[in-house]
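Sat 14:20. Reprocessing the chain from the morning session after the first attempt stalled halfway. Input below, unchanged.
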Amino acid sequence: TLAGERVDLVCLPELINSTGLEGDSAGWAEPIPGPTSERLAEKARDYGMYVAASLLEQQGDGVYNTGLLIDRTGGILGKYRKTHVTLAEGLLRGTAPGDVYPVFQMDFGSVGYMICYDGHYPEVPRTLGLQGAEVILHSNMGDGREGGRLWESVVRTRAVDNQVHLVAALNRGKTCIVSPNGEFLAEGDGTPGAVVVANCDLNASMCDFSKRPIHRRYDQLRRADTFGELTRHLWDSV
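Finished this time. Tokens:
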């Protein structure tokens, strides 16, 4: 589909090695490196591009929903493990959560990763943005809240609040690329397998009333000392 186009980064949806397969999906978990990651690495080398995808990973006795990033040479740049697993993933399928938010340095900029349900928690993209992510990748099964009507407003808000480009690849729903000013640079029509492509200016920024770009000004004025409640668990506040 991308033949003839020079692409720096391809982001694929959630759990590409197990979604839609019959039977217990946990049985399709595989190690990294493994068959799927090696196939993705081959494509990254062939096209000289970065590839990102969510895979069901088996490591020892643990199963994880892992965001894998592969560099232009086919090497593993790094992994992110989904931190907010759903009840179905955790209790019914035994998927374990990750607990760190790495930011990856690519030759064009800094990239963070979140997966599906992570996007329901604004602290996840905020943490990535505070660590300097210029692009946040979002491999996503889909967003069915209110029949999908909230999706556009959510991704716009995440991009604007954190002044990042948000690249969301969905199994079901509107795959899209959103700029820091909330503009849809590219969007699919909801067709499964839709491919969208956009040029992202990493110097782009939302402007305030004075027409000056905001860039990271939000971070500079952020009153972290007032946000203690955000670090509490629900049961600590009862």
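The first strand starts at residue 9 and ends at 11.
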